[in-house]
Amino acid sequence: MNVPNKITLSRIFLIPIFILLLSIPFNWGTWDIGETSLPVSDFIAALLFILAAATDWVDGHYARKHNLVTNLGKFLDPLADKLLVSAALILLVEMGMAPAWLVIVIISREFAVTGLRLVAAGEGIVLAAGSMGKLKTATQMVAIAILLLHQFPFSYIGFPFGTVMLYAALFFTIVSGVDYFMKNWHVMRDSK
């Protein structure tokens, strides 16, 4: 197994730890930040999420730079992203920081695109992520990180930046999903 795939696997292994930090009521105290209190466990979970999200860029960059792109990597990388983002969004709903309907739309888009990729794979076609999909992922990661940090550092000025970014992520999720299906509809149309 090459280095980029090991990095991707490390991202997958961080997800259960991330989930535990936000699911178990650890009483490690809080920090007062701006107009809000940030539980230490949420801060650690946010740092873990940021670390895991950063490995997405690292493994892709390393694989392309050293010509180590593999089929396993093409499978694991988007899977790791979807698992990490879905876990974080569902936990944000549980914490009352994200509306459930919005999370349902985002996760539904991921299922739909994955389904299209599976149909394409059955036809021997590999569908790469486009620039809109990468923008979608970036806005999702930023929104989740800021929400996990209880809007820090924007809590000092009372601006809900994480919430704004979450709605931007929703916009890019829908637009990139529509774009992806429009560009690749021939796969569904021509499948046997």
Automatic annotation (TrEMBL):
It is an enzyme of class 2 (transferase). One of its GO terms (biological process) is phosphatidylglycerol biosynthetic process. It is found in: Cell membrane. It is a multi-pass membrane protein. It comes from the Bacteria. The chain crosses the membrane at residues 12-31, 43-62, 83-105, 165-182. Keywords: Cell membrane, Lipid biosynthesis, Lipid metabolism, Membrane, Phospholipid biosynthesis, Phospholipid metabolism, Transferase, Transmembrane, Transmembrane helix. Pfam families: CDP-OH_P_transf. Pathway: Phospholipid metabolism; phosphatidylglycerol biosynthesis; phosphatidylglycerol from CDP-diacylglycerol: step 1/2; Lipid metabolism. One of its GO terms (molecular function) is CDP-diacylglycerol-glycerol-3-phosphate 3-phosphatidyltransferase activity. Its EC number is 2.7.8.5. The keyword Membrane applies. GO terms for cellular component: plasma membrane. It catalyses: a CDP-1,2-diacyl-sn-glycerol + sn-glycerol 3-phosphate = a 1,2-diacyl-sn-glycero-3-phospho-(1'-sn-glycero-3'-phosphate) + CMP + H(+). This protein catalyzes the committed step to the synthesis of the acidic phospholipids. Belongs to the CDP-alcohol phosphatidyltransferase class-I family. This is CDP-diacylglycerol--glycerol-3-phosphate 3-phosphatidyltransferase. The gene is pgsA.
